[in-house]
Amino acid sequence: MPETSGPSGRTPKTHVIDFRAAERLLAARDPRGAVKLLDGVIAAHPENTAARLLRARAFFAAAQLRPAELEFTVVLEREPDNAFAHFALGRTYERQGRHDQARRHFRLAAALDPNPQYLERARFDT
Fold first, then answer.
1. pTM recorded for the entire structure
2. pLDDT-based confidence at 8, cuts 50/70/90?
3. Which segments carry the TPR repeats (predicted)?
4. What is the largest CA-CA distance in the chain?
């Protein structure tokens, strides 16, 4: 049975290909290209948390901090125990000069996962 394409002519298989290509673009330091690919994936699959997390990372890498904050927040609404999303949201807040909010998310990340990088940023000793 052939895959059904949506109104954009894209199929679930092409969305997977776009997601993987976006991962490669982000790794190659082309976050804006990654965002463009992920916009279509998320439009077709708004529930896809992995795509939203990748788009949040791409926004962060492109210094688009407000969109990154919004995407990380959506991820955390769906996965409140996602230590990486807490850490990344903390970094986003930190870059915006919102240090109290950043510290809260760094501490949540460290509480969820004792990753040395998370623990260092959490500053539990202060």
1. 0.89
2. low
3. 83-116
4. 60
